[in-house]
Known about the structure:
The complex is a heterodimer of chains A (181) and B (431).
Chain A: H1 9-19, E1 23-25, E2 28-32, E3 38-42, H2 47-57, E4 61-69, E5 88-96, E6 101-109, E7 115-117, H3 127-137, E8 140-142
Chain B: H1 7-15, H2 24-33, E1 47-52, E2 64-70, E3 73-80, H3 88-92, H4 97-104, H5 112-127, H6 133-161, H7 165-186, E4 195-196, E5 199-200, H8 208-231, H9 234-240, H10 248-253, H11 259-263, H12 270-273, H13 294-318, H14 336-341, H15 343-354, E6 362-370, E7 373-381, E8 389-393, H16 395-399, H17 403-407, H18 412-422, H19 426-430
Antiparallel strand pairs in B: 1-2, 2-3, 4-5, 6-7, 7-8
Amino acid sequence: MSSEPTEGGAEDAREEIHEQPQVLRHGAIQSFDASGNEVLFTDAASLTKLVQALADEGFGMLLDVCGVDYLTYPGSRGLPADVEAERFEVTYLLISHVERRRLRVRVQVPESAAVVPSLVSLHPGAENPEREVFDLFGIDFTDHPDMTRILMPDDWSGHPLRKDFAVGRIPVQFKGAPAPR
Amino acid sequence: MSITERAPAAERLRNSGAVLRLSQTEAEEAERSGLVPGETRDPDDEKMIMNMGPQHPSTHGVLRLVLELAGETVVRSKPVIGYLHTGMEKTGEELTYLQGCTNVTRMDYASPLFNELAFSLSTEALLGIEAPPRAVWIRMLMCELNRIASNLLFMATNGMDLGAVSMMLYGWREREEVLRLLEKITGLRMNHNYIRPGGVAADLPDGWAEETIRVMDLIPPRLEEYDVLMTGQPIWRDRLQGVGVITADEAVALGVTGPILRSTGVEWDLRRDMPYLAYEDVEFDVIVGSFGDCFDRYAIRLNEIRESIRIVRQCVEMMPDGDYRLQNKKVTPPPRLRIDESMEALIHHFKIFTEGFKVPEGEAYVAVESPRGELGCFIVSDGSSKPYRMHIRGPSFINLQTLPHMMAGSLIADTVAIISSVDPIMGEVDR
């Protein structure tokens, strides 16, 4: 590897997008954030295929899976016109070591069916982050080998990072404590 | 080696059967009965379930491992985490961007400045501002000092875990020197809240350069001592070489970053490959291993101290003059002296510290190379003065996933060496 960072690629593409508002990449709507990183919008059904195609293209490492609950922040929040805003969003952070750039995949997840296919079979490293999203947001990942709570105790009720989970209203729950919940 | 050939590795990891998959309740049951719930066992086999931690001196805090043993060999294992979970990401949603640094700095408590840096860079990306050159170089200087302190801590704990107790004392001794220097500059040994959106909290104090050089002169001879004590020692090598091996494609498939990834031979260091701050302007080497074992991870961290010392020396030499924080009234409080003479300045100061500053809508992910790997901060802003969602990608959290794969088939005595070589900081794992 040379020590020259790649530059320009994302910048050029960002300029292009102004002229051509709807660019599709592997069937996903492409856009760029303020720092010039590529963002793709897809739905739960075509997520696995998209991430597989991206992996074949060089985005071989899944860095993190991050949930967001948009309950108290409705509106477009940077979504393209064709993407319908749902309550939850799962963001996948990918990196290409060869091209030295980052990419985010944003998936809208409705509250009524908070289910996303698991990427563990493709990226075994997704196991812990997906469990974290499940634990803190209550989003289910199908075909995950170990869909259990990871940070909170097993018998905890609720998902703390949801916006309707209040701060400081619930006394600290200790596992196995005799007090009623 | 191509790091894109990950499909076979993913399949191998999936089918390895190294991970014991149990919920916390099942783990407790397994511990009592010695049997994995839902599995039947041949009464003749010698397998047993053993619990290790969370209160175990070698688990670096509160990591708990459930191990399935066949005699003295580890068959399957599972790290159980969450004992230090305090909901810091939830807390982060309740704090303004200026207060946010006090929160994130407590995550990876062995290298707090990197958390502050990732958070500040991410906030700055949303604001569309850049710290002035002096602030950039101060940040770089401080981060490298912190990397030295963090890797010295690793030297100490790694030595202690493997029975080289004197090493613990030496490691703490040198680390304390660096922490004293950090205290002189930031006012605190740890949890500095020094790097903030827009720059740093205060300029470098008088005599910082001499003091920094003094400490940088002091450490290299001590590192030579470490080499004598450990690197060249046959016992040390026997304990570490060939233990806890992971291959490059497995590391990539597991999302591993930092010294663990580099120990497998993958040349990947964000400071060099996706430069931030002023890393393009300094000279340093990326240390890469070849066997992916515990010894490589030890050697990489030892030599990274030397590289960091090189960078610190260059920072001292090339430190530019100018402002240590951005003179942008939107994010920067007025100078202390102005507050005494101007009512507006007092109001301005009050507003910034009570209400905070508003950050435009959008989301940003910025990552830095912490001593443990890629430490990223993902912020979603709804246009208010508090992050709508603040997520820290803690490298230790992801790196812990390698434990079952490294431990499968190894002796129980080696588990301690393997945990130690991953160098997890539980504050960052559990957040």
